[in-house]
């Protein structure tokens, strides 16, 4: 179970972009998170994946509180997540051939010996042919690079996947292919999923439950009631 409780987070002191957000992903569950642009979905997703330290609130992984963020998170917690972002070019080192990009997490965790076999397996699963694996990011399409980023996210067999608008810039067939890769992986491993997006049709089809931002987080300070009444408490009802 992945639990975020009363998370407040942002980028500047005293100016949170996420206020009092609570969200739960049960083991093996797929939860879609929908909301208007700029409301804070990506920020919350980054907090969930231990990539962004919240100003307040807690993140709990299978009953164990998160014990650090980014490189300060203990390895066992950090590697429990596979994360795929919207823009593969911003999350891929342009110097690395796709083979090395996919192998990055294995190398970083001292598992070089497994890398060749695991990359072959992941390339086959994500539909990357051997010739593509020898190319660098600027020599492949966005869709091909996103396939490699998804393969990288799966390399350490994470217990949770966080897909932040993973398919937003892709065509329908690549979107379907990548969703199918995630679903095959989840069937095989029982991993949970937090999928952030703008497309209710896709999230409703893909996920067990879709939650709307208003049900997850309090309103931002500048839209809170002017009379000083507290914002309504978040509720956790999702709907399909
Ligand atoms: N690195 C950053 N530094 C400062 N402000 C940021 C940073 N990243 C995001 N923000 C701001 O935080 C707010 C929430 O951004 P976030 O990306 O979490 O929203 P979002 O709901 O995911 O938006 P979208 O759906 O457009 O991707 C926005 O006002 C954004 O400008």
From TrEMBL:
InterPro entries per the UniProt record, alphabetical: AAA+_ATPase, ABC_transp_ATP-bind, ABC_transporter-like_ATP-bd, P-loop_NTPase
Gene3D superfamilies associated with the record: P-loop containing nucleotide triphosphate hydrolases
GO molecular function, one term: ATP hydrolysis activity
One annotated GO biological process: transmembrane transport
Keywords assigned: ATP-binding, Nucleotide-binding, Transport
Biased composition (Low complexity): 218-227
Descriptive protein name: ATP-binding cassette domain-containing protein
């Amino acid at each position: 179970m992945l639990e975020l409780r009363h998370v407040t987070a942002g980028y500047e002191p005293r100016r949170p972009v996420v206020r009092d957000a609570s969200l739960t992903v049960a083991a093996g569950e797929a939860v879609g998170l929908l909301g208007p642009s700029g409301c804070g979905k990506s920020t919350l997703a980054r907090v969930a994946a231990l990539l962004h330290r919240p100003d307040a609130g807690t993140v709990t992984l299978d009953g164990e509180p998160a014990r650090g963020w980014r490189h300060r998170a203990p390895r066992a917690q950090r590697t429990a997540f596979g994360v795929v972002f919207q823009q593969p070019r911003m999350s891929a080192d342009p110097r690395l051939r796709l083979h090395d990009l996919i192998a990055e997490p294995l190398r970083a965790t001292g598992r070089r010996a497994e890398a060749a076999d695991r990359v072959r397996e992941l390339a086959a699963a994500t539909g990357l042919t051997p010739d593509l694996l020898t190319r660098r990011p600027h020599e492949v399409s966005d869709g091909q690079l996103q396939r490699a980023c998804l393969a990288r996210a799966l390399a350490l067999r994470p217990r949770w996947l966080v897909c932040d608008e993973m398919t937003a810039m892709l065509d329908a067939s690549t979107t379907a292919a990548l969703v199918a890769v995630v679903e095959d992986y989840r069937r095989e491993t029982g991993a949970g999923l937090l999928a952030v997006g703008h497309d209710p049709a896709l999230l409703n089809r893909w996920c067990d439950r879709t939650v709307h931002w208003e049900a997850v987080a309090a309103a931002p300070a500048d839209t809170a009631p002017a009379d000083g009444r507290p914002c309504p408490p978040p509720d956790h009802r999702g709907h399909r």
